[in-house]
Design goal:
296 residues; 0% strand; 77% helix
């Protein structure tokens, strides 16, 4: 640490007092609180596991901070696409709304903004896959398979949007907020705890179809909550293929909602161009799942 003091001073100089305090709190919840929590199930349907629920806070805050740090490190001057890629680790919805507003205002970088919206959605697909690999590995393989068409479509549409225009510097900051604000993370953990009971009940009452409906509704609010809720189901209650398809439903619903946001906020032809990559990604993965066959 002494040998790296120059680099550490430079890093700290760019942080606010609130951010430094948040980093210290994160170290406590990840390195102190998490190992001390019991890894046992209790509550209705044995749906609550303190360590797994608290891991929601650790994983979500960790991924969000990675994107936030990258955005702060590279800055808006690195361009629209760089901001979309790093900002989407915190919130792909925030990137979509910000870029759609710039499209509505007639920003000259129309193609880059459209590509940025598609790339933010692509990052969300990858981000969810990472969360699933950590907390629901039994569903990771089939989720990757179902999400591949959407991922490739988003990438292709982004490249197509940029075919006639070079990336331009971004002069507008995407308002991401402080990702280490524990309020939203704790609310997410509480939501997962409640949804875990509901999903266990739906599984016992209606089977996979009931779980699919609940996760689809949850995905409208937060994709992470849907993924983490499914990860709390008992081992063996749903096979890996079914679990991956179930996780894809809230992801595709959330992507479609962002398409509606882009279409309504940007408006006109710009809104249509911004929404097409999102809707195309949803249709690509939905068609792939339909061809293979729904598991219920």
């Amino acid at each position: 640490m002494l040998a790296s003091r120059t680099q550490l001073h430079g890093l700290l100089k760019g942080l606010t007092e609130e951010e430094i305090e948040s980093v210290a709190r994160f170290a406590i919840v990840a390195l102190v609180v998490l190992p001390l929590l019991p890894d046992t199930n209790f509550g209705p349907y044995d749906a609550w596991n303190p360590r797994r629920i608290w891991s929601v806070v650790v994983v979500v805050l960790g991924l969000s901070f990675a994107g936030y740090a990258a955005t702060r490190r590279f800055g808006a001057e690195r361009g629209i696409l760089a901001t979309a890629l790093t900002g989407a680790l915190v919130s792909s919805t925030a990137v979509t709304v910000t870029y759609a507003r710039r499209l509505r205002a007639g920003d000259e970088a129309q193609a880059a903004l459209t590509a940025g919206i598609a790339l933010a959605s692509l990052v969300m697909f990858v981000r969810v896959q990472i969360v699933a690999a950590v907390l629901a590995p039994f569903a990771s393989a089939s989720l990757a398979l179902t999400m591949t068409p959407a991922l490739l479509t988003s990438l292709g549409m982004a490249l197509l949007a940029l075919r006639h225009e070079q990336q331009t510097p971004s002069q507008h900051e995407v308002k991401l907020g402080n990702p280490l604000d524990f309020g939203p993370a704790l609310l997410l953990a509480a939501l997962v705890a409640v949804l875990s009971v509901v999903v266990h009940w739906a599984l016992a009452r209606w089977g996979s179809s009931g779980v699919a409906l609940l996760l689809g509704i949850t995905g409208m609010m937060d994709v992470d909550a849907a993924v983490l809720t499914l990860s709390n189901l008992p081992v063996g209650s749903i096979d890996g293929w079914t679990a991956g398809v179930l996780l894809s439903i809230p992801i595709l619903v959330n992507t479609a909602i962002k398409g509606v946001i882009a279409l309504s906020v940007a408006g006109g032809r710009a809104g249509i161009r911004a929404a097409i990559p999102l809707f195309a990604a949803v249709l690509a993965s939905a068609a792939g799942i339909a061809l293979v066959g729904w598991p219920f």
